[in-house]
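ARCHIVE RECORD
Type: protein–small molecule complex
Small molecule: zinc ion
Source of inputs: curated submission
Record status: active
Notes field left blank by submitter.
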Amino acid sequence: MTIIEQILILLVLSPLIYLGVRNMWLANKSSATIEGKPRYWLQMVCHDCDAKVGELHEPGCDMERCPICDPTDERQLITCGHYDEVMKGDIPRIPYIQRLVHCSVCNELYPDFFNVPDEEWDKYVIPMLQHKVLCRPCYDAMKRLFPDGWRNSFRSET
Ligand SMILES: [Zn+2]
Ligand SMILES: [Zn+2]
Ligand SMILES: [Zn+2]
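STRUCTURE (tokenized, with ligand):
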């Protein structure tokens, strides 16, 4: 077969290949629906270790959460100190499920992570938001709303 012939065959086949890939993709999409509604999270993979939704992370993946620590704290298993204990196998490990993370105030999706000292967080963020995710601009807005902290904002001056 000459190179020209090979190129011609490829040209003829390419729409078929394209359609095949596209159909696979569509089939995949429809398998990620529940009661007809798309549930794309079912197809996501852990961006760190490539675990599929519902699978366990590769040991040492920093996305794996600790099953022993308080779940509202979302502690990383590799840093919380329980790694060896959990890997012994007696405690069920937490499989990967992709969740949306958004600012609890403005709803921004996947806001940038930032760090503030605990005392500051406690001072400016009202109690029911303290264990939630806030984006930096919303946190800064709270500091402007309560320059002396929320506890002191409405205290009568006596
Ligand atoms: Zn992972
Ligand atoms: Zn832990
Ligand atoms: Zn926000």
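CURATOR ANNOTATION: The pocket of zinc ion (ligand 2) is lined by residues 66, 68-69, 75, 80, 82 (CB under 6 Å).
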